[in-house]
Amino acid sequence: MRRATPGLRVLVLGYLVRGPLGGIAWHYLQYVAGLSRLGHDVFFVEDSDDYPSCYDPVRNVTDADPTYGLAFAARSFECLGLEQRWAYYDAHQDRWFGPAGQSAHALCETADVVLNVSGVNPIRRWTANVPTRVLVDTDPGFTQIRHLTEPTARARANQHTAFLSFGENIGRPGCAVPDDGFPWLPTRQPVVMDAWRLSCGSRHHPLTTVMQWDSYRSQTHDGVRYGMKADSFGPYLDLPARTGETFTIALGGSRAIQESLADHGWTIVDSRLPTSDPWTYQNFIAQSKAEFSVAKHGYVVGQTGWFSERSAAYLASGRPVVVQDTGFTRWLRVDDGVLAFTNLEEAVEQVKTLNRSYQRQCAAARAVAHEYFDSDKVLSDLLRIAT
Fold first, then answer.
1. Rounded Cα distance, 325 and 299, in Å
2. Can you list the domains of the chain with their CATH numbers?
3. 204 backbone φψ class: left, alpha, beta (φ>0; ψ -120 to 50)
4. How much is the pLDDT for 374?
Protein backbone atom coordinates (compact mmCIF):
# COMPACT_ATOMS: atom_id res chain seq x y z
CA MET A 1 0.00 0.00 0.00
CA ARG A 2 1.49 3.37 -1.04
CA ARG A 3 2.60 5.66 1.77
CA ALA A 4 0.88 9.00 2.19
CA THR A 5 3.94 10.69 3.76
CA PRO A 6 7.73 10.20 3.59
CA GLY A 7 8.04 9.40 7.31
CA LEU A 8 7.64 6.14 9.16
CA ARG A 9 4.41 4.20 9.01
CA VAL A 10 3.36 3.96 12.66
CA LEU A 11 0.45 2.02 14.13
CA VAL A 12 -0.77 3.26 17.51
CA LEU A 13 -2.58 0.56 19.47
CA GLY A 14 -4.81 1.84 22.25
CA TYR A 15 -8.06 1.71 24.19
CA LEU A 16 -10.42 4.29 22.72
CA VAL A 17 -13.35 2.38 21.21
CA ARG A 18 -13.46 0.20 24.33
CA GLY A 19 -12.87 3.15 26.68
CA PRO A 20 -14.94 5.97 25.14
CA LEU A 21 -14.31 8.64 27.76
CA GLY A 22 -12.82 12.08 27.18
CA GLY A 23 -9.68 11.79 29.27
CA ILE A 24 -8.81 8.28 28.09
CA ALA A 25 -9.41 9.37 24.50
CA TRP A 26 -6.90 12.24 24.72
CA HIS A 27 -4.31 9.82 26.07
CA TYR A 28 -4.29 8.00 22.71
CA LEU A 29 -5.43 10.75 20.34
CA GLN A 30 -2.31 12.77 21.12
CA TYR A 31 -0.04 9.94 20.00
CA VAL A 32 -1.83 9.83 16.64
CA ALA A 33 -2.09 13.60 16.17
CA GLY A 34 1.44 14.20 17.43
CA LEU A 35 3.03 11.64 15.11
CA SER A 36 1.04 13.04 12.20
CA ARG A 37 2.39 16.52 12.99
CA LEU A 38 5.92 15.10 12.78
CA GLY A 39 5.23 13.90 9.23
CA HIS A 40 4.70 10.21 9.92
CA ASP A 41 2.08 8.03 8.26
CA VAL A 42 0.14 7.12 11.38
CA PHE A 43 -2.97 5.04 12.02
CA PHE A 44 -4.82 4.15 15.21
CA VAL A 45 -5.56 0.42 15.31
CA GLU A 46 -7.52 -1.05 18.21
CA ASP A 47 -8.28 -4.68 19.00
CA SER A 48 -11.23 -5.85 21.07
CA ASP A 49 -9.08 -8.60 22.60
CA ASP A 50 -10.79 -11.91 23.30
CA TYR A 51 -12.93 -10.96 26.29
CA PRO A 52 -15.86 -8.50 26.67
CA SER A 53 -14.12 -5.14 27.15
CA CYS A 54 -16.32 -2.45 25.57
CA TYR A 55 -17.58 0.13 28.05
CA ASP A 56 -20.81 1.95 27.24
CA PRO A 57 -21.27 4.93 29.61
CA VAL A 58 -24.91 5.41 28.58
CA ARG A 59 -25.89 1.86 29.49
CA ASN A 60 -23.15 1.80 32.16
CA VAL A 61 -22.15 -1.72 31.19
CA THR A 62 -19.06 -3.46 29.87
CA ASP A 63 -19.73 -6.10 27.24
CA ALA A 64 -18.65 -7.08 23.72
CA ASP A 65 -20.79 -4.50 21.87
CA PRO A 66 -18.60 -1.73 20.34
CA THR A 67 -21.50 0.34 18.94
CA TYR A 68 -21.16 3.28 21.32
CA GLY A 69 -17.36 3.30 21.15
CA LEU A 70 -17.28 3.19 17.34
CA ALA A 71 -19.48 6.30 17.12
CA PHE A 72 -17.37 8.00 19.80
CA ALA A 73 -14.16 7.21 17.88
CA ALA A 74 -15.59 8.50 14.61
CA ARG A 75 -16.51 11.86 16.19
CA SER A 76 -13.18 12.18 17.97
CA PHE A 77 -10.95 11.49 14.99
CA GLU A 78 -13.09 13.62 12.66
CA CYS A 79 -12.79 16.67 14.92
CA LEU A 80 -9.00 16.35 14.79
CA GLY A 81 -8.92 15.98 11.01
CA LEU A 82 -7.90 12.32 11.30
CA GLU A 83 -11.21 10.80 10.23
CA GLN A 84 -9.61 8.26 7.83
CA ARG A 85 -6.88 7.23 10.27
CA TRP A 86 -8.42 4.56 12.46
CA ALA A 87 -9.58 0.96 12.46
CA TYR A 88 -11.08 -1.43 15.01
CA TYR A 89 -10.85 -5.20 14.97
CA ASP A 90 -13.71 -7.00 16.70
CA ALA A 91 -12.41 -10.47 17.54
CA HIS A 92 -15.85 -11.58 18.69
CA GLN A 93 -17.21 -11.09 15.17
CA ASP A 94 -13.88 -11.52 13.34
CA ARG A 95 -14.67 -8.23 11.61
CA TRP A 96 -12.93 -4.90 10.99
CA PHE A 97 -14.63 -1.54 11.50
CA GLY A 98 -13.60 2.07 10.83
CA PRO A 99 -12.43 3.93 7.71
CA ALA A 100 -9.07 2.10 7.62
CA GLY A 101 -10.57 -1.26 8.49
CA GLN A 102 -10.66 -2.66 4.96
CA SER A 103 -6.98 -1.87 4.42
CA ALA A 104 -5.80 -2.75 7.93
CA HIS A 105 -3.88 -5.89 6.96
CA ALA A 106 -2.06 -4.08 4.17
CA LEU A 107 -1.19 -1.25 6.55
CA CYS A 108 0.25 -3.71 9.02
CA GLU A 109 2.30 -5.47 6.34
CA THR A 110 4.03 -2.19 5.45
CA ALA A 111 4.27 -0.66 8.94
CA ASP A 112 7.63 0.26 10.44
CA VAL A 113 6.59 0.72 14.07
CA VAL A 114 3.84 -0.46 16.40
CA LEU A 115 3.28 1.57 19.57
CA ASN A 116 1.30 -0.61 21.96
CA VAL A 117 0.32 2.15 24.38
CA SER A 118 -0.58 0.78 27.83
CA GLY A 119 -0.13 -2.73 26.45
CA VAL A 120 -3.89 -3.15 26.16
CA ASN A 121 -3.88 -4.73 22.70
CA PRO A 122 -2.71 -8.24 21.80
CA ILE A 123 -0.08 -8.60 19.11
CA ARG A 124 -1.95 -10.48 16.39
CA ARG A 125 -0.47 -12.24 13.35
CA TRP A 126 -0.89 -9.05 11.30
CA THR A 127 1.27 -6.97 13.68
CA ALA A 128 3.71 -9.69 14.81
CA ASN A 129 6.12 -9.03 11.92
CA VAL A 130 6.28 -5.24 12.17
CA PRO A 131 10.04 -4.60 12.64
CA THR A 132 9.75 -2.37 15.73
CA ARG A 133 7.10 -3.24 18.31
CA VAL A 134 7.14 -0.87 21.27
CA LEU A 135 5.46 -1.62 24.59
CA VAL A 136 4.61 1.67 26.31
CA ASP A 137 4.02 1.00 30.01
CA THR A 138 1.75 3.64 31.53
CA ASP A 139 1.15 1.79 34.82
CA PRO A 140 4.63 1.34 36.32
CA GLY A 141 5.05 -1.07 39.19
CA PHE A 142 1.80 -2.88 38.46
CA THR A 143 2.94 -3.78 34.94
CA GLN A 144 6.21 -5.24 36.19
CA ILE A 145 4.48 -7.25 38.95
CA ARG A 146 2.12 -8.73 36.36
CA HIS A 147 5.09 -9.78 34.26
CA LEU A 148 6.60 -11.52 37.28
CA THR A 149 3.42 -13.25 38.41
CA GLU A 150 1.29 -13.84 35.31
CA PRO A 151 2.84 -15.99 32.54
CA THR A 152 0.31 -14.78 29.97
CA ALA A 153 1.18 -11.12 30.62
CA ARG A 154 4.89 -11.91 30.34
CA ALA A 155 4.38 -13.79 27.07
CA ARG A 156 2.51 -10.81 25.62
CA ALA A 157 5.30 -8.46 26.68
CA ASN A 158 7.89 -10.74 25.05
CA GLN A 159 6.29 -10.07 21.67
CA HIS A 160 7.74 -6.53 21.70
CA THR A 161 11.19 -5.33 20.68
CA ALA A 162 11.43 -2.13 22.76
CA PHE A 163 10.20 -1.21 26.24
CA LEU A 164 9.38 2.31 27.41
CA SER A 165 7.72 3.32 30.65
CA PHE A 166 6.06 6.29 32.33
CA GLY A 167 8.02 5.06 35.36
CA GLU A 168 10.91 7.39 34.58
CA ASN A 169 12.82 6.34 37.68
CA ILE A 170 12.91 2.61 36.88
CA GLY A 171 16.45 1.31 37.26
CA ARG A 172 17.57 4.33 39.27
CA PRO A 173 18.51 4.33 42.98
CA GLY A 174 15.51 4.79 45.25
CA CYS A 175 12.98 3.33 42.80
CA ALA A 176 11.26 0.24 44.22
CA VAL A 177 9.69 -1.06 40.99
CA PRO A 178 10.42 -4.82 40.84
CA ASP A 179 12.85 -5.91 38.13
CA ASP A 180 10.93 -7.98 35.58
CA GLY A 181 13.95 -8.45 33.31
CA PHE A 182 12.80 -6.10 30.54
CA PRO A 183 15.09 -3.16 29.59
CA TRP A 184 12.75 -0.28 30.44
CA LEU A 185 13.63 3.21 29.21
CA PRO A 186 11.81 6.43 30.18
CA THR A 187 9.02 8.13 28.26
CA ARG A 188 6.04 10.30 29.18
CA GLN A 189 2.67 11.49 27.87
CA PRO A 190 2.89 13.51 24.63
CA VAL A 191 0.73 16.64 24.54
CA VAL A 192 -0.22 18.28 21.24
CA MET A 193 -0.03 21.83 22.51
CA ASP A 194 -2.14 23.33 19.73
CA ALA A 195 -5.03 21.06 20.74
CA TRP A 196 -5.27 22.69 24.19
CA ARG A 197 -6.71 26.19 24.24
CA LEU A 198 -4.97 28.48 26.68
CA SER A 199 -7.49 30.48 28.72
CA CYS A 200 -7.33 32.63 31.81
CA GLY A 201 -7.91 30.71 35.00
CA SER A 202 -10.00 32.07 37.84
CA ARG A 203 -8.97 31.81 41.48
CA HIS A 204 -12.71 31.62 42.27
CA HIS A 205 -13.15 28.30 40.46
CA PRO A 206 -12.73 24.96 42.29
CA LEU A 207 -9.67 22.75 42.33
CA THR A 208 -10.73 19.66 40.39
CA THR A 209 -9.71 16.27 39.15
CA VAL A 210 -11.15 13.19 37.46
CA MET A 211 -10.41 9.92 39.20
CA GLN A 212 -11.31 6.29 39.70
CA TRP A 213 -11.38 5.25 43.35
CA ASP A 214 -10.34 1.63 42.72
CA SER A 215 -9.17 0.76 39.20
CA TYR A 216 -8.41 -2.91 39.97
CA ARG A 217 -7.11 -5.00 42.85
CA SER A 218 -4.02 -3.90 44.75
CA GLN A 219 -0.86 -5.98 44.37
CA THR A 220 1.67 -7.32 46.87
CA HIS A 221 5.19 -8.29 45.85
CA ASP A 222 8.10 -9.26 48.10
CA GLY A 223 6.10 -8.10 51.11
CA VAL A 224 5.40 -4.65 49.66
CA ARG A 225 1.83 -3.63 48.97
CA TYR A 226 1.08 -1.52 45.88
CA GLY A 227 -2.36 0.05 46.28
CA MET A 228 -4.84 2.24 44.42
CA LYS A 229 -5.82 5.90 44.83
CA ALA A 230 -8.21 4.80 47.54
CA ASP A 231 -5.15 3.91 49.62
CA SER A 232 -3.56 7.34 49.04
CA PHE A 233 -6.58 9.52 49.74
CA GLY A 234 -7.18 8.97 53.46
CA PRO A 235 -4.64 11.48 54.85
CA TYR A 236 -6.15 14.25 52.70
CA LEU A 237 -9.83 13.85 53.62
CA ASP A 238 -9.85 17.04 55.68
CA LEU A 239 -8.14 19.20 53.04
CA PRO A 240 -11.31 21.25 52.24
CA ALA A 241 -11.70 22.14 55.91
CA ARG A 242 -7.99 22.86 56.32
CA THR A 243 -7.80 25.23 53.34
CA GLY A 244 -11.30 26.68 52.95
CA GLU A 245 -11.11 25.83 49.24
CA THR A 246 -13.70 24.16 47.02
CA PHE A 247 -12.53 20.79 45.70
CA THR A 248 -14.55 19.03 43.00
CA ILE A 249 -13.91 15.42 42.05
CA ALA A 250 -15.44 13.79 38.99
CA LEU A 251 -15.42 10.37 40.60
CA GLY A 252 -15.96 6.81 39.54
CA GLY A 253 -16.69 4.84 42.69
CA SER A 254 -19.40 3.46 44.95
CA ARG A 255 -22.16 5.64 46.35
CA ALA A 256 -20.85 4.97 49.87
CA ILE A 257 -17.45 6.38 48.94
CA GLN A 258 -19.02 9.41 47.29
CA GLU A 259 -21.16 10.11 50.35
CA SER A 260 -18.17 9.75 52.68
CA LEU A 261 -16.15 12.26 50.66
CA ALA A 262 -19.09 14.67 50.52
CA ASP A 263 -19.36 14.46 54.31
CA HIS A 264 -15.76 15.74 54.47
CA GLY A 265 -16.52 18.74 52.26
CA TRP A 266 -15.61 17.38 48.81
CA THR A 267 -17.95 18.18 45.91
CA ILE A 268 -18.61 15.00 43.95
CA VAL A 269 -19.89 14.76 40.37
CA ASP A 270 -20.44 11.73 38.16
CA SER A 271 -17.18 11.13 36.26
CA ARG A 272 -19.16 10.36 33.09
CA LEU A 273 -20.38 13.97 32.80
CA PRO A 274 -17.08 15.81 32.13
CA THR A 275 -15.71 12.85 30.16
CA SER A 276 -18.60 12.33 27.75
CA ASP A 277 -16.28 13.37 24.91
CA PRO A 278 -12.80 14.92 24.52
CA TRP A 279 -14.20 18.46 24.48
CA THR A 280 -16.38 18.25 27.57
CA TYR A 281 -13.19 17.04 29.26
CA GLN A 282 -11.31 20.12 28.05
CA ASN A 283 -14.15 22.36 29.24
CA PHE A 284 -14.08 20.77 32.68
CA ILE A 285 -10.38 21.57 32.97
CA ALA A 286 -10.96 25.12 31.67
CA GLN A 287 -13.52 25.72 34.44
CA SER A 288 -10.98 24.69 37.08
CA LYS A 289 -8.75 26.87 39.21
CA ALA A 290 -6.13 24.10 39.26
CA GLU A 291 -5.91 20.36 39.66
CA PHE A 292 -5.61 18.64 43.01
CA SER A 293 -4.88 14.93 42.89
CA VAL A 294 -3.34 12.09 44.79
CA ALA A 295 -1.56 9.30 42.90
CA LYS A 296 -2.00 5.56 43.06
CA HIS A 297 -0.46 4.32 46.28
CA GLY A 298 1.71 1.92 44.26
CA TYR A 299 3.26 4.74 42.25
CA VAL A 300 4.20 6.53 45.47
CA VAL A 301 5.52 3.44 47.29
CA GLY A 302 7.56 2.50 44.25
CA GLN A 303 8.82 6.06 43.71
CA THR A 304 8.27 5.35 40.04
CA GLY A 305 8.56 8.91 38.73
CA TRP A 306 5.18 8.53 37.00
CA PHE A 307 3.38 11.75 36.03
CA SER A 308 -0.28 11.79 35.08
CA GLU A 309 -1.38 12.35 31.48
CA ARG A 310 -4.37 14.17 33.00
CA SER A 311 -2.10 16.54 34.93
CA ALA A 312 -0.18 17.20 31.72
CA ALA A 313 -3.48 18.24 30.12
CA TYR A 314 -4.17 20.69 32.96
CA LEU A 315 -0.71 22.19 32.48
CA ALA A 316 -1.24 22.57 28.73
CA SER A 317 -4.49 24.42 29.48
CA GLY A 318 -2.62 26.88 31.71
CA ARG A 319 -3.87 25.30 34.92
CA PRO A 320 -1.42 24.58 37.74
CA VAL A 321 -1.43 21.18 39.40
CA VAL A 322 -1.16 20.40 43.10
CA VAL A 323 -0.23 16.72 42.96
CA GLN A 324 1.24 13.97 45.10
CA ASP A 325 4.90 13.30 44.41
CA THR A 326 5.68 9.87 42.97
CA GLY A 327 9.36 10.66 42.58
CA PHE A 328 8.75 12.84 39.49
CA THR A 329 10.50 15.69 41.31
CA ARG A 330 13.73 13.92 40.38
CA TRP A 331 13.28 14.75 36.70
CA LEU A 332 10.68 17.55 36.51
CA ARG A 333 11.28 21.13 37.64
CA VAL A 334 8.73 21.87 40.36
CA ASP A 335 9.28 25.47 41.45
CA ASP A 336 6.14 26.85 39.73
CA GLY A 337 3.21 25.33 37.82
CA VAL A 338 3.67 21.92 39.41
CA LEU A 339 3.21 22.06 43.20
CA ALA A 340 4.19 18.69 44.64
CA PHE A 341 3.40 17.34 48.08
CA THR A 342 4.13 14.20 50.12
CA ASN A 343 1.83 14.73 53.12
CA LEU A 344 -1.17 16.75 54.30
CA GLU A 345 0.84 19.66 55.71
CA GLU A 346 2.73 20.05 52.43
CA ALA A 347 -0.54 19.90 50.48
CA VAL A 348 -1.99 22.70 52.63
CA GLU A 349 1.11 24.83 52.07
CA GLN A 350 1.06 24.22 48.31
CA VAL A 351 -2.56 25.41 48.13
CA LYS A 352 -1.45 28.56 49.93
CA THR A 353 1.39 28.96 47.42
CA LEU A 354 -1.13 28.58 44.59
CA ASN A 355 -3.24 31.39 46.02
CA ARG A 356 -0.34 33.75 46.72
CA SER A 357 0.91 33.66 43.14
CA TYR A 358 -1.99 32.36 41.08
CA GLN A 359 -1.36 34.15 37.77
CA ARG A 360 2.33 33.28 37.89
CA GLN A 361 1.45 29.65 38.55
CA CYS A 362 -0.88 29.61 35.54
CA ALA A 363 1.76 31.04 33.23
CA ALA A 364 4.32 28.58 34.55
CA ALA A 365 1.95 25.65 34.02
CA ARG A 366 1.83 26.20 30.26
CA ALA A 367 5.62 26.66 30.17
CA VAL A 368 6.14 23.34 31.99
CA ALA A 369 3.88 21.59 29.48
CA HIS A 370 5.94 23.01 26.61
CA GLU A 371 9.23 22.04 28.22
CA TYR A 372 8.42 18.50 29.28
CA PHE A 373 5.36 17.19 27.40
CA ASP A 374 5.29 18.82 23.94
CA SER A 375 4.48 15.96 21.57
CA ASP A 376 7.13 17.06 19.07
CA LYS A 377 9.84 16.43 21.68
CA VAL A 378 8.34 13.42 23.44
CA LEU A 379 7.50 11.47 20.31
CA SER A 380 10.75 12.27 18.53
CA ASP A 381 12.64 10.98 21.56
CA LEU A 382 10.41 7.88 21.74
CA LEU A 383 11.06 6.93 18.13
CA ARG A 384 14.77 7.65 18.43
CA ILE A 385 15.08 5.40 21.48
CA ALA A 386 12.84 2.62 20.18
CA THR A 387 14.11 2.36 16.63
1. 9
2. 9-192+374-386 (3.40.50), 193-372 (3.40.50.2000)
3. alpha
4. 98
Q: List the beta strands (DSSP E) in the chain.
A: 9-13, 41-47, 54-56, 61-63, 86-90, 95-97, 113-117, 132-137, 162-165, 185-186, 207-212, 219-221, 224-226, 247-252, 267-270, 290-293, 321-324, 338-341
**Antiparallel, parallel or unpaired: β 61-63 and 54-56:** antiparallel
pTM over 0.90: yes
SS (HEC) of 33-47: HHHHHCCCEEEEEEE
DSSP characters over 188-243: ---B-GGGS------TTSPEEEEEES-SS--EEETTEEE--HHHHHGGGTTHHHHH
Average the pLDDT over 237-241 and give the result. Answer: 97
- On the 0-12 / 13-18 / 19+ scale of CB atoms within 10 A, 289 is buried
Residues in the chain: 387
CB atoms within 10 A of CB 130: 20
Q: Which amino acid is at 280?
A: T
| Full DSSP string of 177-198 | ----S---EE----B-GGGS--
pLDDT band at 214 (very low <50, low <70, confident <90, very high): confident
Whether the CB-CB separation of 359 and 199 falls below 8 Å is answered with: no
Q: Please return the burial class of 260, using the count of CB atoms within 10 Å of its CB with bins 0-12, 13-18 and 19+.
A: middle
pLDDT at 216 (0 to 100)? 84
Answer whether 280's CB lies under 8 Å from 325's CB.
no
| DSSP code string of 105-134 | HHHHHT-SEEEEETT-S---TTTTT-SEEE
